[in-house]
Amino acid sequence: MILLAFIVGLNVITSCVSHKAKYKGSWERLSAEVDPYYTVFLIGDAGYSSVDGDNEVFDHLEKALNNQNKNSAIIWLGDNIYPVGLAPSTSIYSSQGRYRLLAQLNTMRDYVGQKYFVPGNHDWYTYGRVGLRRQELLIDSFLHHTPNPNDQDDYFLPSKGCGDPQIVDLKEDIALLLMDSHWFLEEKARIGDQSVCDVKTTEDYLQKIAEEVDRNKDKALIIASHHPPFTYAHHGGKFPLKDDLFPITQKVDWLYIPIPFAGVLFNRIRLRMSEQDVYHPMYKQYRSKLVEVLESKGRSIVASGHEHTLQLIENHNQYFIVSGAGTKNNKVGMGKGSRFGIGEQGYVKVVFLDSKVAKIQFIVPGLYEEHDNVAYEKLVTLE
Ligand SMILES: [Fe+2]
Question: Per the count of CB atoms within 10 A, which of 14, 118, 311, 335 is most buried?
Answer without folding.
Answer: 311
